[in-house]
User: Fold this.
Amino acid sequence: MDAKVSQNQDRIGVLEELLNERYSVRAFLPKDVDRATIEHVLTTAQRTASWCNSQPWQVVIASGGAKERFRQLIYKEASGGLGDDYDFMPPREYAGVYLERRRESGFQLYNTLGIARGDRSAYAKQALENYNFFGAPHVAIIHTNEPLGIYGAIDCGAYVSNFMLAAQALGLGTIPQAALARHSGLIRRHFNLPDDRRVVCGISFGYADNAHKINSYRTSRATVADTVTFVEK
Assistant:
């Protein structure tokens, strides 16, 4: 193996390690991340590719007292059954293999927590933990420009992925949260966002509580054969 091939194997190995290590953290330690580390994550994620280099993502990061005020507001709205104003429509339905994967992931979560299958009250209580940010000391809100439509949202999705990988590389845990986007009106009002901004998702982040049982399970992945069609003739 020549030096160039060896170097490339080392580089892809780092990416594979980060992708294999990353998971959605649902219990965080009560320990703040220093500003320099957060800015390192942001600087790295800023290299994300985007349509026509539009870089449509804008990020609000709430920490400390600001995070707590936001948490109280959004938790109150969610727990009261209010707020269902996505800027981007959620899936109409999950069917076939997509439903199977969703169920597998959900049952893994509930089994880890000892929640009995069909216990809808316990399901709902666990879902509300999204609005406590799972105890994370920081929450990021990712939003885009309305005229860019779905392409702006796609760019933000790529940004979210790179944010999480950069955080993983720096020893942080993350969880992307579409649930927060159910409350886009509250988010715009609370953070004084312009009317032309559209909320894509949130990312709660900090240091993972590795001792908590909820962080012990991992979701599966489909194979390349399940997801890719090669056309050669």
Remarks:
- The two ends are 32 Å apart (CA to CA).
